[in-house]
Amino acid sequence: MSRASSKVTFPENIRVYKTDYSEPSLISALEGHDAVVSTISGSGLKEQQKIIDAAILAGVKRFIPSEYGIDVCHPKAMEIVPFFNQKQQINAYLRSKESQGITWTSVATGPFLDWGLQAGLFGFDFKNRSATFVDEGTQPFSTTILPTVGKAIASVLTHASDTENKRIFVHSFRTTQKQLLEILEKQTGRQKMSSGQGGVFELLQAAMFKGGCGSDFETEFEVHNDLLELRPDNL
Ligand SMILES: NC(=O)c1ccc[n+]([C@@H]2O[C@H](COP(=O)([O-])OP(=O)(O)OC[C@H]3O[C@@H](n4cnc5c(N)ncnc54)[C@H](OP(=O)(O)O)[C@@H]3O)[C@@H](O)[C@H]2O)c1
Q1: What is the C-alpha separation between 60 and 155, in angstroms, rounded?
Q2: Which of 21, 41, 201 to mutate to test the pocket of ligand 1 (most atoms within 8 A of CB)?
Q3: Which of 118, 122, 223, 121 is nearest to 173 (CA)?
Q4: Which domains does the chain have, with CATH numbers?
């Protein structure tokens, strides 16, 4: 589904339903579908409440909310990253609707590794050869590459009963900022990156790389890679 006003383009083989997010439009888009996978942006998170209401009326069986990060329900993480509260509220809304016939699965993946390295989310500024570390960069955290995020979501739907009304944690690896830097330096043959100042992702980095804030799935939660039959990735 895409807004009528949207300038986003899609590959030709993707069927796109243009919607104004009104109830009749959403119901007509959702009727006959088993699941909704929401990838709505941070600014549109609240719209999900309307989509969930319409999904229930349309008989959709499973809703996957737009989460895909560290544990957005972690109290410390919510304190550090205010917009996690909106994701947590959608999670609570889904729980409150279980009796109306819809099921949900939220998918925590940690930061996207491949996308995040390019975007500067991991604290590495390739142009200026600088690195910003949280707590010396030694705290382990879970991270997932985008293809595995996609496989995990597909696998949630093919393991529908095992993942019903659950928070699911998947990752490609458990690593640290320091380990990533070592690999980057080795792979690029570059000189050591100097220590730099914080960037636009400071808030997220503070929660993701600090430890004890819901980002190290192996120690804080159960990792569900085996349940979803995800093959190991190679760091
Ligand atoms: N773990 C990570 O490293 C990581 C990284 C990035 C994102 N994420 C998460 O992934 C999810 C998707 O993020 P994204 O960056 O991919 O999103 P995005 O590209 O910024 O936006 C996705 C789509 O949301 C729709 N949208 C935007 N504003 C809207 C509004 N006000 N009302 C309705 N629809 C709206 C737009 O679709 P149309 O224009 O087609 O209507 C847009 O193309 C979020 O939950 C985000 O936090 C995680």
Answers
A1: 18
A2: 41
A3: 223
A4: 20-220 (3.40.50.720)
> What are the pLDDT digits (tens) for 86-95?
999 999 999 9
Alpha carbon dihedral 28, 25, 104, 151, in 10-degree steps, equals 80
Q: Name the average pLDDT for the chain.
A: 92
Does residue 120 have its Cβ closer than 6 Å to ligand 1? no
* Nearest ligand 1 atom, CA 121: 3
Q: Map tokens 């220590």 to a residue.
A: 195
Return the C-alpha torsion angle 10, 48, 215, 184, nearest 10.
Answer: 20
Residues 134-147 pLDDT 10s: 999 999 999 999 99
Cα of 188 from ligand 1 centre, angstroms: 31
Tokens 């990060």 found at: 69
